[in-house]
Structure formats: C-alpha cells, structure tokens
Write the structure tokens for this entry.
Amino acid sequence: MASKRVAADELAAAKSAMVGRLLRSTETAIASARFYGSRWRAGLPLETPDDRAEAIMQVTAEQVQSVAELIAGGIGDVRMALVGPSDQGDELLSAIESTAPN
C-alpha cells in the first residue's frame, strides 16, 4: 500500500466521501456542538466544517503516500492512520507517542 501512489480518481472519490460525511454530520445544532466539542477536547484548532472540507480537498497523493510509508514503517509497536494537514502531523504524532505504553 505504501509503495505505490493512490490513483487520482480514487483519491478524489475518497476526499469527496469524507467531505460529504463531514458536512452531513454537522447539519444539526447538536451535531455542530459535537464537532466543535470533540475538536476542543482533542486540542485541535476550532476551524469550521467548511475549513476542514477545504483542507481535505487540498490533500495530495504524495501526502497520502508519505503517511502510508510512515504507517507501514510503524511507530513503535503501534499501527495507525492520521488524516489532516501536514502542519499538524508532528503535533499529533508527539501527542500519541507521549501517551503510548512503553
């Protein structure tokens, strides 16, 4: 999986599906509150669903492959997936590494 770039049509379909789920999942007031509350609790920026959707649409095949290579290489004994802008990747990884059992 990490050795080959994701096809453009597959990436476009995945991004479209993610954005659709994101926007549908924030259609009600309680769903929006859950969206913002979970981001706040996780210490993530309080961006709007539209901002998140735009960030998702900016993800490139090269970024997907880079993350796949990282996951395939392993993080200690942990295998995981992170999706988001590259400027948050180091933050998320350090947070996970600091809570991972030794």
User: Anything to note?
Assistant: The longest helix spans residues 8-24. The chain has one domain: 8-99. Residues 8-99 form one domain. The mean pLDDT is 82.
